[in-house]
Amino acid sequence: MPEKRIALRNCGIVDPRDIASYRKAGGFTAFMKARDTMKPDQIIDEIKKSGLTGRGGAGFSCGLKWELAGNTKSSRKYLICNADEGEVGTFKDRYILTHDPYGLIEGMCIAGLAIGATKGFIYLRAEYHALFNLLSDAIVESKRNGFMSHMDIKVFEGAGAYICGEESALMNSIEGRRGESRFKPPYPPIQGLWGRPTIINNVETLMNVPYIIKNGAAAFSAIGTGRSKGTKVFSVSGDVERPGVYELTMGSSLNELVVDLAGAQGIKAIQIGGATGNILPGRKIDTPLSHETCLGSGAVVVFNQTRNIVDIVHNNILFLHDESCGKCTPCRDGLEAMKEIFDRLVKGEGIQEDIRVLEELSKVMSLASLCGLGQAAPVPVMDSLKFFREEYTNLIQQSAYVRNYTAQGLSVTL
Ligand SMILES: Cc1cc2nc3c(=O)[nH]c(=O)nc-3n(C[C@H](O)[C@H](O)[C@H](O)COP(=O)(O)O)c2cc1C
């Protein structure tokens, strides 16, 4: 199936440095329609009816979130675009920001009208510093052209921590506090940045907003599956011939994405959604990509037959262990214990008991961690134990043989 471009509609078509080029392609007509002909609750209603869900990972209804913030009384409300994009293997937001900054600003301007925000932030991943001027210039131009009389937008550069992509840690970061997750409730639409109602949306989520307002909710909700409407932008990397950013209708199969478009062959496993994402074996290639199955941030990393699954999960755990904010015990100590086990496993010092301990730790962490990092960290561990258990048991058995032989003073070559 060919790509269907909604979020990426202007990428490669408009000049990202020229507002006139964006306007020539129909840019800001959706904003003017919203501003001149719709009331805030009509905008929210249209987004609700479209079925647009968050593209940053959690997949929550965008319209419901906006409604909550819209209905909360406050003299000041905030809108934050989450452009932290720290998820391993995810680079679609960078692609969007590079090629269509005005598309994002138009989406933010409409969101600001809908919820009544007077101040907006683009929380930009520290490593995307090269995009700072492009985005800041686009804000200045949009203001000069009269599209931002209701709201100011500022680009805020992140501090380079994965946890700061988590919405509550992100707000702490903007407030100048340590990047740690907050206890929830209260949720940001009620009490967010500096205690005020705040909407936090991913870049890709906001890119869909002008399309929906311009073409109507029905045009968007007609595409996709039951719970997953519209399209999804994927970042595909790993053992593929054509790595890159692809936009497909929700519900398209993994095969269409990684084989037909990205040219993968001899697939052993695919990780979907980053370091805390599902790991599927190659035989699950017909899995549809949607919130109902697996999606996350849209990172898709392909591994061929030469890859070692325990090594892959070890890498995930090393990353998450480094990036855990340490605020809650299940995530902090759970990842410490998982790292210790995986370090031993790959050194050939694993024992059978390690598998049981990994499974128990996974249960506790997913149930008791404060935020998505600790809650989802066990996902690749559990999936790899489900689909590639023999890689763990073979490694442990091999290690036991080696220990046995070396204890007898014999040398072993594996
Ligand atoms: C550890 C962690 C990192 C996250 N990083 C990002 C990120 O880089 N970008 C993003 O949009 N969402 C990220 N999220 C999800 C956000 O917390 C939040 O759900 C999202 O920004 C909401 O926007 P959406 O509803 O448009 O998806 C992360 C979540 C967790 C737990």
Describe the model.
The protein starts with 18 loop residues before the first helix and ends in a 7-residue tail after the last helix. The strands form 2 sheets. Strands 6-5-9-7-8 form a 5-stranded mixed sheet. Strands 3-2-1-4 form a 4-stranded parallel sheet, sandwiched between helices. The chain has 414 residues and is α/β, with parallel strands linked by helices. Helix 3 packs antiparallel against helix 4 and helix 3 crosses helix 6. Bound molecules: flavin mononucleotide. The site of flavin mononucleotide has 23 residues, from strand 4 and helix 15.
Bin the strand percentage.
5-15%
Average pLDDT for all residues? 96
- Please report the first level of CATH classification, the CATH class of the largest domain: Alpha Beta
Helical/strand content category: alpha/beta
* C-alpha-based Rg, rounded: 23 Å
Counted beta strands: 9
Low-confidence stretches: none
Overall geometry:
globular
Q: DSSP helix count? A: 17
Taking the sheet with the most strands, its summary is: 5 strands, mixed
Ions and ligands: flavin mononucleotide
Helix content: 40-55%
Please indicate the count of domains. Answer: 3
Major sheet: arrangement of strands = 6-5-9-7-8
CATH topology of the largest domain, by name, is Rossmann fold
Q: State the CATH superfamily name of the largest domain.
A: NADH-ubiquinone oxidoreductase 51kDa subunit
Task: Tell me the span between the first and last alpha carbons.
Answer: 45 Å
CATH architecture of the largest domain: 3-Layer(aba) Sandwich
Helices and strands, in N-to-C order?
Answer: HHHHEHHEHEHEHHEEHEEEHHHHHH
